[in-house]
Design brief:
By secondary structure, the protein is an all-alpha fold. About 75% of the residues lie in helices and about 0% in strands.
Length: about 425
């Protein structure tokens, strides 16, 4: 029983709303200080900080900085104009723009919170002005903001690759089709709701090829970044980590010399925001290293594998059980905490059952991000409600039909692994 005390302590600390990083460090170190004193605690601490300087993790600060630079470089406004040209003629035009903009920004910000906060300020006031209820506008913003976590360079993709010891590049390529599916299903759901409620299009008719081409020309520098990452990884010009550095360089060049909206004075805010975001992520990874060391020392992943083998040997049944478990857990536990705790436990079982860890990773990320919009702890709903000064309960009610679309994508991703693995296998080989 003493072997499981750190896990019990971790759940208690998280339920008490102790920051995830401190919860992980306290629970991991408690084992080596109070339970098994045969291992020197200083070796555990050394391992924790050694994991934080792994080369692949450099991608995290680089992509965070790139996303922050782009917020000041005029990229998001141009992408919004391009999204409006493509979808403004549809029922619920501005809501459709909201979803498409999130999808395009997914390859840039890599952050659901950043995307939701930006669109609360850019799009929601205009949506309300055009007759959408504030609660529905907030719900669409929260629901569409999930997509950037699935489309590269989502930070969750990098963290999963680190925890599961798989290729970051393969995780990046695997995220594109599921992310596009989430976009399509969400737009279909919004179209159904818009027809029922009478939410009109923002354009009287579909944009002509000439109009689309004109707006595309203005948006090409903004759209090139995600495609540049794909091409660079595909042809071996840089690694996923180096892609982050190239993204920063590209964003700075576009901001200064093309859009001419990025100023020297912006860099103090960019660095401040980036250091805060990077520090919080890396602190969690340090804590995860302590917990991972404890789990491997006690052979808990192997015990989980043996337990699952006694319940089922069917990969499909295993994925079904994991999905149900994660959907319930996502209602109560932060998505990042769930990944840090469960990925090291589940991946050995995944491998033993012959499930591709890349496929499992995308399924996992889609699932846990659905939890960011479900009660009682859907942090994206609380974020949008807080910014817009709305009742979270009313926003949660509006989110329900939008969640159904995401659940359908989760089912497709779970049982059609070819969709997840198509691009990694095509571009990087089987």
């Amino acid at each position: 029983m003493l072997s499981y005390l750190p896990l019990i302590l971790l759940l208690i600390l998280i339920m008490l709303k102790v920051p995830v990083s401190f919860s992980l460090i306290a629970s991991g170190l408690s084992y080596f200080i109070f339970v098994d004193v045969s291992s020197p605690a200083d070796l555990v601490i050394e391992r924790m900080f050694a994991r934080a300087v792994d080369f692949p993790l450099l991608a995290i600060p680089f992509f965070i900085i790139a996303g922050s630079v782009m917020n000041y470089a005029g990229i998001s406004s141009r992408l919004m104009d391009f999204a409006e040209v493509l979808t403004g003629h549809l029922k619920g035009g501005l809501a459709q723009v909201n979803v498409l903009l999130s999808t395009m920004m997914g390859g840039i910000t890599g952050s659901a919170s950043a995307d939701a906060a930006m669109q609360c300020k850019m799009l929601v006031p205009e949506m309300v002005k055009r007759g959408y209820t504030p609660e529905f506008s907030a719900a669409v913003t929260a629901s569409s903001a999930i997509i950037p976590n699935v489309i590269p360079p989502g930070i969750g993709l990098i963290i999963y690759a680190f925890l599961a010891d798989v290729s970051v590049a393969r995780m990046f390529f695997a995220g594109y089709l599921p992310g596009l599916l989430m976009c399509v299903f969400l737009m279909i759901t919004i179209s159904i709701i818009a027809n029922k409620r009478g939410y009109e299009a923002t354009r009287e008719k579909r944009a002509t090829i000439g109009e689309i081409g004109k707006q595309l020309k203005k948006s090409i520098p903004s759209l090139f970044l995600p495609f540049g990452i794909i091409l660079g990884l595909r042809f071996g010009l840089f690694t996923a980590t180096e892609a982050g550095a190239m993204s920063v360089l590209y964003a700075v060049i576009i901001g200064f010399f093309v859009h001419k909206e990025l100023k020297i004075s912006h860099f103090s805010e960019i660095l401040k925001d980036s250091v805060k975001a990077t520090g919080s992520v890396l602190f969690i990874i340090i804590g995860a290293a302590a917990l991972s060391y404890y789990l491997s020392w006690e052979r808990i992943p192997q015990q989980v594998t043996e337990l699952v083998a006694r319940i089922t040997t069917s990969p499909m049944m295993f994925l079904f059980i994991v999905n149900i478990f994660l959907l319930i857990l996502g209602m109560f536990l932060d998505s990042g905490a769930s990944m840090i705790i469960l990925v090291p436990l589940l991946v050995p079982t995944v491998m033993a059952l012959g499930i591709d860890p890349i496929h499992f990773g995308i399924m996992y990320i889609v699932n846990i991000n659905i939890g960011t919009q479900t009660p009682p702890f859907g942090n994206l709903v609380f974020l949008t409600s807080s910014i817009l000064k709305l009742s979270p309960t009313k926003v949660f009610k509006e989110v329900i039909p939008l969640t159904i679309g995401h659940l359908l994508v989760l089912a497709i991703v779970t049982y059609l692994p070819q969709i997840v693995l198509f691009f990694p296998n095509l571009l990087l080989g089987v």
